Amino acid sequence: MTRVGIVVLTLVTALGALAVAVGISPYWWLVALPLIFVGMLGVWDLVQRRHSVLRNYPVLGHARFLMERIRPELQQYFIERNYDGRPFDRDVRSIVYERAKGTDAEEPYGTERDVYQAGYEFLVPSMAPRPVPENPPRVRIGGPDCGRPYEMALLNVSAMSFGSLSANAVLALNGGAAAGGFAQDTGEGGLSEYHLRPGGDLVWEIGTGYFGCRTQDGDFDAAEFADKAAHENVKCVSLKLSQGAKPGIGGVLPGAKVNAEIARVRDVPQGRTVVSPPYHRVFSTPRELVRFVARMRELSGGKPAGFKLCVGSRRQFLAVCKAMLEEGTAPDFIVVDGAEGGTGAAPLEFADHVGTPLTEGLLTVHNVLVGTGLRDRVKVGASGKIASGTDLVKRMVQGADYGNAARAMMFAVGCIQAQRCHRNTCPTGVTTQDPRRARALHVPDKTARVQRFQEATVAGALQIMAAMGVTDPAQLRPHMLRRRVDPFTERSYEELYEWLQPGQLLAGPPASWAADWNAADPDHFTV
Asked: What angle separates helix 92-101 from helix 443-467, to the nearest 10 degrees?
């Protein structure tokens, strides 16, 4: 029985109990009144538009919100008893929800973190804070080979595909991007009408399956790519090499999710499970990779072109940069995806043990680009659990120019991490292709939430930078971020990590880089 049918049945039963209470026995009021209350509450849940859970689970969904109300008290109970040997961290989801709803506010009584625990990181405030800029700075994406540069926001929607996400979720994300002036990465699932309809800026991502620009036998279709990349909403094009949560393996979209619409968008058969290959057909060497990214830029009419990867071998990335130097061209941007990034489905071993975490990945990419003299022409994006202004500032200290958020944006459109993504039974309508479940996600409300979350997070980052004495991300330096290495010692990022000077690898690599630099071959992905 559907949720509407259950509510109707409850109301009918309530009316019957009411008739008996009036005509036969007043004791039936004990049955009629609760049923009337439950029935009316169910009607309200079905027609309201703020909470997707209540629209899909009328009445029962209130149990979740009841638990949210008592959670702070439970959390404090465990903090006072030093549960598990440490205090709880603040709930990231709560921060995102509050900002998305426009209710973000100060918290009383200070930090809940153990500031003397090894691993604790903090940003360094200045004795001379600066005013917070009225307008957030933007990052120009586009090197010397780019004819149509793009001004990227400091925080954008990270790669999430239509198919993995519902149509309503994509509409809300792109609508928020349009209203807030930031970009949405399409993910590798193709360019759908839901990405295009609201009018938000897009980074069109192409993965190993070449969905949306794919020949019948799975090769890259240059003509179809050029035709779609010409759309005015597509501001950048990106080649996905690997994903943080599952580097080295392809994605899977279960056949139950591949309806006629998704099949058309992806150029694949309807109802059949879609498996992306783990590797690309369009290149097999670093030099071919660099050439193909340049070809993507040419086919798109001069729009910025780049690639995304979860960093693995430093030697292989050095080989790619050597290929850039020898070919005389480079991508306009590189997005670094951290191994701590999320996904709806990945083997547990990959999620936990394969790939470089975002901090080390960013440091590697930034240092190699600096050391090869390429940093000025290649912008660096960071993707991996960016959910707050603090996260964004830290990543920019570590070498990023801008950030992308996926999980936090999903929270903004209503995700509750039910972990039902792969089963097509998402209770909030975010990651399902079931029309009845997806309908519960009210697009206008969630569009506003996405915009508010992005705006508040960037504002928070700017406020933090102003407190640090800087007004532009370019002024951030490694000594401004510090980490406690043990209960008695803390060090700055300038001390903890090696930072190459511009062109240092070309002039003569330091001893710690020499072996990898000498072994890096632009014509082979040497392990």
From this structure: 110
Alpha helix stretches (DSSP H) within 188-299: 193-196, 222-229, 260-266, 286-299
Helices (H), ranges, 122-246: 167-180, 193-196, 222-229
Whether the pTM exceeds 0.90: the reply is: no
Residue 108 pLDDT greater than 60, yes or no: no
CATH number of 139-476: 3.20.20.70
Asked if the model's pLDDT at residue 423 lies above 60, the reply is yes
Cβ atoms of 153 and 420 closer than 8 Å: no
Alpha helices by DSSP H, listed for 24-153, are 29-47, 52-56, 62-80, 92-101
Q: Where are the domains of the chain?
A: 1-88, 139-476
Give phi and psi for 263, each to the nearest 5.
Answer: -60, -40
Report the pLDDT value the prediction gives residue 360, as an integer from 0 to 100: 95
Q: Is the dihedral of CA 251, 268, 446, 39 positive or negative?
A: negative
Q: 104-108, 154-158, 337-341 — which is least confidently predicted?
A: 104-108
Sole residue written with tokens 């400091």: 154
Residue type, 459: A
b/e burial code for range 289-303 (CB count within 10 A of at least 16 → b)? bbbbbbebbebbeeb
- DSSP three-state, residue 252: strand
Residue type at 167 in one-letter notation: A
> 403: which strand partners?
155, 382
Please tell me the total number of residues recorded for the chain in this structure: 527
Lowest mean pLDDT among 258-267, 341-350, 518-527: 341-350
pLDDT band of residue 64 (cuts 50, 70, 90) is low
| All residues at 6 or more sequence positions from 132 whose CB lies less than 8 Å from its CB, including other chains | 459, 462, 463, 466
Count of alpha carbons within 13 angstroms of residue 230, beta-carbon side: 8
